[in-house]
Amino acid sequence: MTSLGHWAGVLVTAPLVLLARAVDPLLRAWQRWTGIGGMAAFFLLPNLLIFGVFVLIPIVLNLAYSMTGGTEILLAQRPYVGGEQYARLLECQDYSRPLTCREDQFWTAARNTGLFVLFQVSLMVAVSLVTALILNREIKGRGFFRAVFFFPVLLSPVVVGLIWRWILQREGLLNLLVVNLGLEPQVWLNDRVTAFAAAVGVSTWAHMGFYTLILLAGLQAIPRDLYEAAEMDGTPPARVFRRITLPLLGPNLAVVLVLALIRGVQIFDEAYVLTGGGPGTSTLFLTQYIYEVGFASLLRNPGLAAAASMLMAGVLVVLTLVQLRLSRSSAGGQR
Amino acid sequence: MSQIALKGVTKSFGGVSVIHGVDLDIETGELVVFVGPSGCGKSTLLRLISGLDQPSAGAIEIDGRDVTRVSAADRGLAMVFQSYALYPHMTVRQNLSFGLENTRMAKAEVTGRVAEAARMLNIEPLLDRRPTQLSGGQRQRVAIGRAIVRNPTAFLLDEPLSNLDAELRVSMRAELAALHARLGTTMIYVTHDQIEAMTLASRIVVLRAGRVEQVARPLDLFNRPANLFVAGFIGAPSMNLFPTRAEGGTAALPGGRRVPMAGVPEGSEVTIGLRPQHLRLAQGNEPGFDLRIALIEALGTETVVHGELAGTSGDTPRRVFAILPGQPGVALGDILRLGFDEAYLHRFGPDGQRLVGPGRP
Ligand SMILES: Nc1ncnc2c1ncn2[C@@H]1O[C@H](COP(=O)(O)OP(=O)(O)O)[C@@H](O)[C@H]1O
Ligand SMILES: [Mg+2]
């Protein structure tokens, strides 16, 4: 056994050793040339390359596309139109009524996304907080339940959407149950309100395990003897929650809030598979709008789609800055 | 009537028994110290008294009332935690007033009590700081202050000084003693440090593995340890213990000197104890035993000698400690003849219990 392990080790390390011997002189030469500071750049290079190719260049391309018009795909064949696409997106008689806007679909999607974020994020914070509080107690089968709530996070969003469509569609599981109970079957996904609620509920279900985990970690970081000190003083449970648990969980709650906001704004996959944006445009969200305008409609308009993505990116950048700010202040030991 | 009484209290966690039937009476105004090696159940016993944990069997009474099933908050006790357990997001002032705000106490009364405690503990300039902005000693004071404002019938303190550095520990110890003298409130104080126990306690409860080994005033504990465990635990360096055998009403010590040994069956295994302080250089041809010096700790006022009994040089030479007054001119490797007064002997029977009989009262 040991000798087998030994030889396996040699087999793995020998090429590495040879590689190191080969690379060493090159590294030395590089360092002599650039100094020790250049070594950092050397090691960062692969990551910077990947980041540049897959993130930075697409962003710049997107910006370029957003200032061009026409239906051509290749940038070189597209005429420069300046801020026209943005103007088109933002042209509106009355911003509170999407239908008065030139790009009424964009505004509908923006309003839907806003509403979705509002409901989904509130629901998410509430549900994951309650779940974390329950899982933090010494209940039976705690480990099992922790796994159960985390499980959907591991599923592909498309799978999530499919599962729930099977449950909620006209001849789905839910209606089977409803009929068995002697009630009228409902068209859950063909009703404006229930379809929207389903999108909110399903995406909450799919991601709550992640946020629950963040909150659970926060709860477990609160020393137990704080609660015992409060118990000695006869502090009512509601006051313990309000004055001890909530403030000490504050940084974690803030992180959950902002992360959920960021993800909420980007809602697409599970909702698209579940409702396809319908009925009508009642669950049309921004990402779907961008996708359809740019790729899936008869008259593709990549420039308009790019402009819409830039606007959405602006919102996300603001939220991300807030998130970075929060995580820095909580890492700085503000507790 | 005792103020706090434990009656046959036991505690087990899961299947593991941690406290095995403790009976204890604590009088009003006493400062009782629970002392014992780490893991012996001191904290557990304190938590049972506090009401944070429930005993598996037995009863706890406070002022004659059975409080075994009464919640921690309704026992009128205040606890100072080893970690201090200060609320990190509240100022010192809020930490002090938090517990009072649970009661229907008037605001002015709360403010008054906080101010009073802050003055008593010299933490007035710190009232608007948060715990993270305090030193260890200051946090300790705040933790004590949080207990004081509640005006409890007894204080429970779990190793309150163990997170402080040595110097601060000594000064806080003195302050705690002064505080106890001033408030006159009962205190139960847990520590594994026998110096803390000896200097603070009106009575010491020595615990081992969930059992009470002895309850006594500090000097009684030192002078009359009830059994071998207490004899070895109290006093530093610890008591020299010599296993021997009772023969004809006497027992032999190393070196051959025989001392009276009454009240045990002929031939039984007994132990004779002698504190290092009670050994002295033998005068003239006084009988005693010979010690080869292996280590000398000269402290100026006294000299601690670690020696090996001559004649036991084999595999396991028996270690003996002696404390000699002043600065005797001894050197490593010297062989000393040590003598003692029989009045200072401690005698323990085959069961390890102290034998009454001749010896220092
Ligand atoms: N909540 C608990 N669950 C299981 N065992 C415990 C628990 N609390 C204490 N013990 C055990 O009880 C024994 C006594 O612990 P403790 O009272 O903390 O000792 P100490 O005298 O050092 O304060 C230890 O063996 C400890 O492992
Ligand atoms: Mg302890």
Automatic annotation (TrEMBL), chain A:
All residue ranges annotated as the ABC transmembrane type-1 domain in the record: 110-323
Regions crossing the membrane: 6-23, 35-61, 115-135, 147-167, 195-219, 240-262, 304-326
Organism: Rubellimicrobium rubrum
Coiled-coil features, chain-numbered ranges: none
Signal peptide: none
Classification lineage: Bacteria, Pseudomonadati, Pseudomonadota, Alphaproteobacteria, Rhodobacterales
UniProt KW Transport keyword: yes
Topological category with respect to the lipid bilayer: Multi-pass membrane protein
Intracellular or extracellular location(s): Cell membrane
Matches recorded under InterPro entries: ABC_transporter_permease, MetI-like, MetI-like_sf
Family under the similarity heading: Belongs to the binding-protein-dependent transport system permease family.
GO terms under cellular component: plasma membrane
Assigned keywords, A-Z: Cell membrane, Membrane, Transmembrane, Transmembrane helix, Transport
One Pfam family recorded for the sequence: BPD_transp_1
UniProt record, GO biological process: transmembrane transport
UniProt keyword Coiled coil present: no
Superkingdom in the source lineage: Bacteria
Name of the protein in its database record: Sugar ABC transporter permease
Automatic annotation (TrEMBL), chain B:
One matching Pfam family: ABC_tran
Key words of the record: ATP-binding, Nucleotide-binding, Transport
InterPro entries in alphabetical order: AAA+_ATPase (IPR003593), ABC_transporter-like_ATP-bd (IPR003439), ABC_transporter-like_CS (IPR017871), ABC_transpr_MalK-like (IPR015855), ABC_transpr_MalK/UgpC-like (IPR047641), Mo/tungstate-bd_C_term_dom (IPR008995), NA-bd_OB-fold (IPR012340), OB_MalK-like (IPR040582)
GO biological process: carbohydrate transport
Gene Ontology, cellular component aspect: ATP-binding cassette (ABC) transporter complex, substrate-binding subunit-containing
Database matches in CDD domains: ABC_MalK_N (cd03301)
GO molecular function: ABC-type transporter activity; ATP binding; ATP hydrolysis activity
Keyword Transport: yes
Entries under SUPFAM superfamilies matching the protein: MOP-like (SSF50331), P-loop containing nucleoside triphosphate hydrolases (SSF52540)
The ABC transporter domain, residue ranges: 4-234
Entry similarity comment: Belongs to the ABC transporter superfamily.
Name the UniProt record assigns to this protein: sn-glycerol-3-phosphate ABC transporter ATP-binding protein UgpC
Annotated organism of origin: Rubellimicrobium rubrum
Gene: ugpC
